[in-house]
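user: can you give me the structure for this one chain? tokens are fine.
assistant: on it. calling the predictor now.
[tool input]
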Amino acid sequence: MKNKFRIYTIKLNRRLLLLIGFMVIFLIAIFKLRDSQVLDIFNFSDKDIIVVDPGHGGIDGGAGKKSDILEKDINLGVSLKLKKELLVEGFHVIMTRENDESLEDLSSINSSRYRKDLDARRNIINNNKPLVFISIHCNSSTRSSARGIKIYHYPNSVEGEELAKNISESIDRNFYYNYFRDDNLKCEILCEDFFILRETEYPGVLVEVGFITNPEERRLLQDDEYQQKLARAIKKGILSYLQK
């Protein structure tokens, strides 16, 4: 009886090992196929540079009230999350700032502090020769009811307009609808002669991520999950643009 029992146990173990082996091979094949498809779509590397520009910083708080929340802080929060999203895709991400600081000390021009800060941002973008750049800001209005995301590109910039369209479509689909479940919310595309759009040599847009003067949007813009979902939607729009 003992011998039969031992032979039966060995056969059971072999079957189990064979089953496990087939499962491992099957799973490896699935992951290989998935990875190859992803690489075909997102074939980017750390040589592919994207510049993310969080507006304002340091002494320049941007819109908002010191007793509440300042634009510079929201800009930085969204930008840092966008950086992480882009790093996952294999890009090399350059930030114009990663702390609460202004950039006038990086400029050599003889001008106002504000103009020197803009000059430094322009130089960081142009010197790094990015595929695209994204400048993150918050909007403000005398009307507290004003709300919504707006994306600006330079007038007559074909690539800038195309980038704006792709990011806008992604925000409408992946952020407004999925987050709010509201088809009526739409991202607005506008053209504007902003310095950062006019003086740079590479495709870029300025994204106003919401109105800091709208009580509801101001509350949402301080939420980490809200910022994360918005950053992911912007990233998907960038990827869509780069694949065309």
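assistant: here you go. The chain has two domains: 1-41, 44-242. The chain has a mean pLDDT of 87.
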